[in-house]
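Please, structure for the following, as tokens.
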Amino acid sequence: MMADIEKIKGPASYFPSIEAKYGHPVKHWFDILRQAGDLKHMELVNLLKSAHGLGHGHANALVAYHLAKNKA
């Protein structure tokens, strides 16, 4: 019998298409976000969009995941 594979939900569901479209593993983008410091959500989204050419949806997904995982 084939085991049920849980479907990835939320921001992480975008990761395969982000990696395919921009040619970097998501760790690359998380490193950039970490190095950006203590910016607000939309400031981080705008950084990824303006400095790195990501689309809004992809940038937003990376930032949402990054901030959720790094709550103090």
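DSSP finds four helices and no strands in the chain. Residues 56-69 form the longest helix (14 residues).
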